[in-house]
Design goal:
Shape of chain A: globular
Order of helices and strands of chain B: EEEEEEEEEEE
Largest interface: A-B, 20 and 23 residues
Structural class of chain B: mainly beta
Number of helices of chain B: 0
Strand content of chain A: over 45%
Distance between the termini of chain A: 37 Å
Radius of gyration of chain A: 13 Å
Oligomer: heterodimer
Largest sheet of chain A: 7 strands, mixed
Largest sheet of chain B: 6 strands, mixed
Helix content of chain B: under 10%
Chain lengths: 114, 110
């Protein structure tokens, strides 16, 4: 089946620094990728939808200048958390594809900001 | 906004049936989904049900939908240790956005 990878799987950074998370579709091309965030014992919340070659669409309440999304190719989308703070510590999950029946999820990246 | 709720933890004995419950709020949802997440892996779509159905069976999995009560359940027959994972219920909102529950951690013990 289709595989989506994320890198890194875990990252610890200091407050005020920026962190980049990569999401790759390994064996298929994805014009659309989604970024989710999950706090402990809470739901996955959609942060943004990224379409290859165009600007990402952010959900209400998500700061686009803080969470920079780039989808420069059909197999790679990146999420950069800029000027990270402890409250940004979370589990970030990407998915690639289109309709839910054809959407494949990455394993997630755990970000800890100290 | 729309909301999906599920209990956080379920423990069952190997060989017994597991029932994971979920409630949702969007009565216009056309599809409802169950995902499985194993440690270190991505969410895997297990099964789904159209809103005009009230039951769907797929091998050991049975999905029941009570549209009136907005209640969805996933029954796993003959639960095995390999079924230990986190199970997410999700509804699709208008526009195709997925709304997830917090996930139910299923622990299977001998």
């Amino acid at each position: 089946g289709a595989v989506v990878s994320q890198h890194p799987s875990r990252v610890i950074c200091k407050s005020g620094t920026s962190v980049k998370i990569e999401c790759r579709s390994l064996d298929f091309q994805a014009t659309t990728m989604f970024w989710y965030r999950q706090f402990p014992k809470q739901s996955l919340m959609l942060m943004a939808t990224s379409n290859e070659g165009s600007k990402a669409t952010y959900e209400q309440g998500v700061e686009k200048d803080k969470f920079l999304i780039n989808h420069a190719s059909l197999t790679l989308s990146t999420l950069t958390v800029t000027s990270a703070h402890p409250e940004d510590s979370s589990f970030y999950i990407c998915s690639a594809g289109g309709p839910p029946l054809e959407q494949y999820f990455g394993p997630g990246t755990r970000l800890t900001v100290t | 906004g729309e909301d999906v709720e599920q209990s956080l933890f379920l423990s069952v004995r190997e060989g017994d049936s597991s029932v994971i419950n979920c409630t949702y709020t969007d009565s216009s949802s056309t599809y409802l989904y169950w995902y499985k997440q194993e440690p270190g892996a991505g969410l895997q779509l297990l099964t789904y049900i159209f809103s005009n159905m009230d039951m769907k069976q797929d091998q050991r999995l049975t999905v029941l939908l009570n549209k009136k009560d907005k209640h969805l359940s996933l029954r796993i027959a003959d639960t095995q240790t390999g079924d230990s994972a986190i199970y997410f219920c999700a509804e699709m909102e208008k526009g195709g956005k997925l709304i997830f529950g917090a996930g139910t951690r299923l622990a299977v013990h001998p």
